[in-house]
Amino acid sequence: MKLDGPEFRRVLGHFVTGVTVVTTRDRSDAPAGLTANAFASVSLDPPLVLVCIEKSSSTHALIAAAGVFAVNVLADGQERISRRFADETEGRFEGVAWRAEITGAPVLDDVLAWVDCRVHSACDGGDHTIYVGEVVAGDAREGVPLLFYRAGYGEFMP
């Protein structure tokens, strides 16, 4: 059966994912970012990850111009941050604590894990660009991830 857009989304919604906020900086050095769940490791040597960013998002062109991004893996209890960065409005960083890491990309405080990346390559992915990033720094803490399943948030019970 051929799948149209809504049906394709419904079917793939049955795959549970973690939730990330992908961040970068604009030309004036202001932080920018968006919520994304299309994130994966690619290689251990060199350390590479990928993120898929919708071409119509305001963050898409900023990553291409800056050549850097950070991936912030959200913890259970950070649904509010996920929803804030999923909204295409200004002020996403208002009241959100963050710091610049090696590349200058913003890393959000209190996330479960983060990686700081330089763009290694970019590949067309339909209405998205697949950015492969070389990881130059990262860290993680103990905790429970924020999960997304069938258009809703959930939690992992270890």
Outline:
This protein has 158 residues and is an alpha+beta fold. The chain has helices at 5-12, 58-66, 79-86, and strands at 17-18, 20-25, 31-36, 39-43, 48-54, 68-73, 98-100, 106-108, 113-125, 128-140, 146-149, 152-155. It is built from 3 helices and 12 strands.
Structural write-up:
- It contains 3 helices and 12 strands.
- The protein has 158 residues and is of the alpha+beta class.
- 16% of the residues lie in helices and 46% in strands.
- A hairpin with a 2-residue loop joins strand 9 and strand 10.
Q: Main β-sheet, in a few words? A: 7 strands, antiparallel
Order of helices and strands: HEEEEEHEHEEEEEE
Low-pLDDT regions: none
Report the count of strand segments. 12
- Give me the secondary-structure category: alpha+beta
Lateral strand order in the biggest sheet: 3-2-6-9-10-5-4
Instruction: Calculate Rg over CA atoms.
Output: 15 Å
Q: In DSSP terms, counting alpha (H) and pi (I) runs of 4 or more, how many helices? A: 3
Percent helix, as a range, is: 10-25%
Give the integer mean of the pLDDT values: 93
| Outline | globular
Q: Which percent band covers the strand fraction? A: over 45%
Distance between the termini: 37 Å
Strand-helix topology:
Blueprint (H helix, E strand, L loop, with lengths): L4 H8 L4 E2 L1 E6 L5 E6 L2 E5 L4 E7 L3 H9 L1 E6 L5 H8 L11 E3 L5 E3 L4 E13 L2 E13 L5 E4 L2 E4 L3
Features:
single chain, 158 residues, alpha+beta, 3-stranded antiparallel beta sheet, 3 helices, 16% helix, globular
